Amino acid sequence: SLLWVVFLVVVVTSWINYEALFSNYNFENAFQPHSGLHPLLAVSLVIFFVFWLWQAVQFGIDTRDNWEIYRFYEKELHISESELQTIEWSEVARRIITIRRVCITKEQMTPLDLVNRIMRKDNYLIAMINKDVLKMNIPMSHHVIVTKILEWTVSSTIFGFVFDPMNQDGINPHVKDPNKTRELAEGLRKRFKIMGLITLVLSPFIFIFLLIYFLFQYGEQLRSRPTTFATRQWSPLARWKLREFNELPHIFQRRLNASYQFADQYVNSFPINLVTIFARFLAFVIGSLLILFLALGFFDEDVLFKMEIWQKTPIWFIGVGGTILAACRSLIPDENSQIIEPEKAMENLVQFSHYFPSAWRGKVHTLKVLGEFTQLFEYKATIFAMEMMSVLFGPFILLYSLPKCADAIIAFFRDFTVNEPGVGDVCVFAVFPLEEFGNPKYGVQSNCLKSRSTRQGKMEKSFLSFKANYPEWNPGAQGEKYLASLGHSFHLEKDDMLTSVFNLNDHVMKSSPSSSRKNLRESIASLHKLHKQFYRSNPDQDDHLDF
Question: Is the pTM of this model over 0.70?
Answer without folding.
Answer: yes
